[in-house]
Design goal:
- The complex is a heterodimer of chains A (582) and B (333).
- Chain A is of the alpha/beta class.
- In chain A, 32% of the residues lie in helices and 17% in strands.
- In chain A, helix 7 packs parallel to helix 8.
- Chain A is globular.
- The two termini of chain A are 44 Å apart.
- The N terminus of chain A is likely disordered.
- Chain B has 13 helices and 5 strands.
- In chain B, helix 10 runs antiparallel to helix 13.
- Chain B is globular, with a radius of gyration of 20 Å.
- At the A-B interface, strand 7 of A face helix 7 of B.
Chain lengths: 582, 333
């Protein structure tokens, strides 16, 4: 046994001498801790607790893959079974980060293969994952069970084939919203005939067919399957065949929901849905119209999460469906439902906690459709428990937002996107400062805020002064001067992630956060007024930060993008040529 | 019937400016012959798209007009645009290499006509192209759409700034040129791409409920971008085929357009054979079930109800479609 671990076991026998817990007891207790925040706190108590914690940790969460190196991780935590890694800055989702920036999983896998042969789970977000890496993963870890890839890139369906072929104990294959090359759906057929352990299968974002026959057989033999999300190429009548084989599903993502069915087929589908007694999450519904909603009604009463964001429904469609879904907690829709649709939400879903309204035609400058402030108000009136909102709209007023937060003061996540940059309150012509002022003053539990519209430094003054629990702030086309950013950096004690684009914050603003950045995960600034000198100064003053700069122009001193993050791993060794680490 | 509203990628309908002065936001592509034979009624000249070969310039173009989209720099760099092409998913490089896919069947090889502006669309059109939806941005405003991954800061985008286009291997499409700003509104690629296809379908649904428009995408093999047509504005196959012919300027559906069809909705057997043997291209469509069908088999109303998108396929690829169509024709006869 490791001498460090057994150090206390002799002493514990003489209870009169020792006032410490024996290691075994401590470890037993600590092994019950799952929250990584709690574990971090525990590890800071004293050396014994640090050791006990590190030996008992089985899951490690790394919010920024460059904040630490794989070697450091395996050195500290010897018993890891599950790893969650996040890579690129969030703005890479919106093409603000060039390709080949990094966040490649491979080196991590190489190190893990050596030190964590019992690794079971890997969850990645915004990482680059190649097919070779997936194959390496599949062949290096014989106990591997669960892989989840979200917003990742670099791989194709061939990589999935490798997973399906080699991972005999796979329980989870969750591929969400990735940039995945489609080399055919044959990967699904790679699961062996005797493979039955799958519990989660999500390939909703695939862009092509899979062999339905293979899928049907797979669903049939995996009796523990609880999450099944198929892609839009699976037809309604095929869905029926899947459902009758998997009535135990808790989470279903349908395929295409528009197909001509005979009345008998409809009845069968309806019956299949009503047999899914455990179904609480429904998504997919590609191309759904209200025509086939009745088949869902029997299951709707149990739904807590309904994702209609791939179905361009009209308000009437939603008004027909929602009265059957009184237990919804989370609802995602497209703005094609318009304000009337949102009114239906307000009247039908009193338990609603999360609403996301996505734009159906975000780049269409002509369109004057979509949702407005009145729809949002209607939801806030009918759904007092609302605490998470993501709302894309083309017009908003300060008064409306003030009303909304009066109705729903418990917001933890408030992400408002007025799609035209720098747009004013359309009724008063004023900036939208007071709207976000109302949000931060009223919603004391606010953790995440995304702002939009015409905003002056006043917004940031409000944020700095009132948003005491704010952890993530997203800023675009906002602010008037350095003062704004300074207010936030001085004011928000819990700030962890700050991402700013296209705002007039310059060197003074950047440098005002000198004392703060080490307590944050990261700072992103792009298309602001920051120059190389300030970045260099920051890098010099704070050696434990990585200050990475991407420049437009070789000769310019203007910095296009700067990404600052704390790290114990030193400067990146895999930075591409366009990333300068200062 | 009013002529179909043909929108070029920036949403201009038939321009009324004369042929010598090009509107600053349009670029046209056609051969001189095609231009003359094109139906002046539609005033499509101004909105015609030109496809340029490397180094070629459109003689009648005012310098800098067409290329204002990307700043004047490109005018001086005949091969500069090559950088746009890298990474384009559609086989546009084939077209640039002059493999002949985009050779106009009626042309006398007057390829000096072909402005190189056409190539400017390649980075966006490497995906599903610009025809996704109407665009009203002025050319001087940013075309650094989401597919231009790096470098152009959105706040500078409204100026005519030389853009450095990195290899933009973004999978799937984005109606990129519409966006005034890179990465705004903040929507993930997957959703953007899905919405691009969904918006076609949702409009189709509107069409079925009779709101009066039924836009479907029209793609042509070898073309760098797609177009959209409103099926409701046509009442038979002849109208749509002639409209598409004008739109793509080299698309020939064979004898149909000039001779007219017999008084029935479908194409007769002999026409079909002429079509396939005589022309380089064949018009096909994707129906509700996702199958690719030859246009002309079914009555017009049935066609508009089931057509989701159109594709102008090379005749050689369409050979496989012919026998089935022939069978159907025979059975109907």
């Amino acid at each position: 046994m490791d001498p460090k671990r057994s150090r206390n076991s002799h002493e514990s026998v003489n209870s009169s001498e020792s006032t410490r817990f024996p290691d075994e007891v401590l470890e037993r207790v600590l092994s019950l801790l799952t929250s990584h925040k709690d574990r971090s706190s525990v590890s800071l108590v004293c050396k014994d607790w640090y050791n006990a914690e590190r030996w008992t940790r089985t899951h490690v969460f790394i919010g920024n893959c460059y904040s630490v190196s794989p070697e450091i991780v395996v050195g500290r935590f010897p018993a890891i079974r599950s790893v969650t890694l996040k890579g690129k800055p969030r703005f890479s989702d919106f093409n603000l980060v060039p390709e080949n920036w990094g966040a490649d999983i491979h080196q991590w896998l190489v190190v893990f293969a050596e030190k964590y042969p019992f690794l079971e789970e890997l969850r990645l977000k915004r990482m680059t994952v190649t097919d070779e890496s997936l194959e390496f993963l599949a062949t290096s870890f014989s106990y591997f069970k669960a892989i989840s890839l979200m917003s990742c890139d670099g791989f194709s369906t061939d990589g999935l084939a490798a997973i399906a072929t080699h991972c005999k104990n796979l329980t989870e294959l969750d591929i969400q919203e990735n940039d995945m090359e489609d080399n055919g759906g044959g990967w699904l057929s790679c699961f062996p005939e005797n493979f039955t352990s799958l519990e989660v299968l999500n390939f909703a974002s695939q862009q092509g067919d899979v062999s339905f026959d293979a899928l049907e057989k797979l669903v049939d033999r995996c009796k523990s399957l609880r999450v099944l999300k198929v892609d839009k190429y699976v037809k309604l009548e095929q869905l029926h065949r899947l459902l009758v084989r998997a009535p135990q599903l808790t989470d279903l993502g349908t395929g295409n929901f528009q197909q001509e069915l005979t009345p008998r087929q409809c009845a069968e589908l309806e019956s299949a849905f009503s047999n899914c007694k455990n179904l609480h999450t429904l998504s997919g519904l590609w191309d759904a119209t209200s025509l086939y909603f009745p088949v869902l009604y029997s299951a709707c009463g149990r739904l807590t999460f309904l994702n209609l964001s791939y179905a361009a429904l009209q308000s009437g469609d939603l008004a027909k469906l929602l009265p059957h879904c009184p237990n919804l907690r989370r609802l995602w829709v497209l703005d094609t439902v318009e304000d009337e649709g949102l009114e239906a939400i307000g009247s039908s879903c009193p338990l609603l906690e999360e609403l996301r309204v996505f734009p159906a035609a975000p780049f269409d400058l002509d369109i004057n459709r979509g949702v407005t402030e009145s729809g949002f108000i209607a939801v806030s009136r009918g759904c007092p428990r609302l605490h998470y909102v993501l709302y894309f709209c083309r017009q908003m007023t300060n008064a409306a937002v003030a009303t909304i937060v009066q109705n729903c003061p418990d917001f933890t996540h408030f992400r408002l996107c007025i799609m035209n940059p720098g747009q004013r309150d359309y009724l008063t012509g004023e900036p939208m400062d007071e709207a976000f002022g109302a949000v931060v003053k009223t919603c004391t539990k606010l953790q995440r805020l995304a702002i939009s519209g015409l905003l002056t430094d006043l917004t940031f003054e409000y944020i700095g002064k009132y948003a005491k629990n704010l952890e993530t702030l997203s800023v675009a086309f906002a602010g008037s001067s350095d003062w704004g950013m300074q207010c936030v950096l001085r004011g928000c004690p819990k700030l962890r992630k700050l991402e700013i684009r296209d705002s007039p914050f310059g060197n003074a603003a950047l440098l005002s956060g000198l004392a703060k950045y080490e307590s944050m995960r990261s700072l992103w600034m792009s298309a602001c007024n920051v120059t190389m000198n300030a970045c260099k100064l920051l890098a010099r003053e704070k050696p434990r930060l990585n200050v990475e700069v991407m420049k437009d122009d070789e000769t310019d001193s203007q910095v296009d993008k700067v990404y600052v993050y704390r790290t114990i791993a030193g400067p990146r060794r895999d930075a591409p040529p366009f990333v300068l680490t200062l | 019937m009013s002529p179909p509203l043909v929108h070029d990628y920036i949403g201009l309908s038939e321009a009324s400016s004369n042929s010598d002065k090009l509107s600053s936001s349009s670029s046209s592509s056609s051969t001189e012959d095609e231009k003359k034979s094109n139906n002046i009624d539609l005033n499509l000249k101004e909105t015609e798209l030109r496809l340029g070969l490397p180094g070629s310039k459109a003689p009648e173009r005012k310098a800098g007009l067409v290329l204002s989209l990307f700043g004047n720099d490109l005018e001086d760099k005949p091969n500069g645009f090559k950088s746009f092409v890298s990474g384009a998913k559609r086989a546009f490089s084939d077209a640039i290499d002059g493999s002949g896919k985009w050779v106009f069947s009626g042309s006398d090889g007057s390829e000096d006509d072909l402005g190189k502006s056409g190539n400017l669309f390649s980075p966006r059109s490497g995906k599903n192209g610009l025809m996704e939806s109407n665009i009203t941005t002025q050319p001087s405003s940013c075309l650094a759409g989401p597919s231009v991954r790096e470098v152009v800061p959105p706040s500078k985008s409204v100026q005519e700034k030389k853009t450095q286009v990195s290899t933009s291997n973004q999978h799937g499409s984005a109606p990129a040129a519409k966006a005034q700003v890179v990465g705004w509104p903040p929507i993930r690629s997957f959703r953007k791409n899905t919405m691009a296809t969904n918006s076609t379908k949702s409009v189709d649904d509107d069409g079925k409920s009779g709101s009066g428009c039924l836009y479907v995408k029209v793609s042509m093999d070898g073309a760098p971008y797609l177009r959209k047509v409103d099926l409701k504005t046509y009442s038979n196959y002849m109208e749509i085929s002639s409209a598409l012919e004008k739109m793509f300027s080299c698309f020939t559906i064979g004898p149909c357009s000039s001779q007219g069809l017999p008084g029935r909705d479908g194409l007769s057997e002999s026409h079909l054979m002429d079509l396939l043997h005589g022309s380089e291209y064949v018009l096909t469509y994707e129906d509700k079930d996702g199958d690719w069908m030859l246009v002309g088999d079914v009555p017009w109303e049935m066609f508009t109800n089931s057509c989701k998108r159109l594709r102008i396929m090379k005749g050689s690829e369409a050979i496989g479609l012919a026998p089935r169509a022939m069978e159907k024709c025979k059975n109907r006869n």
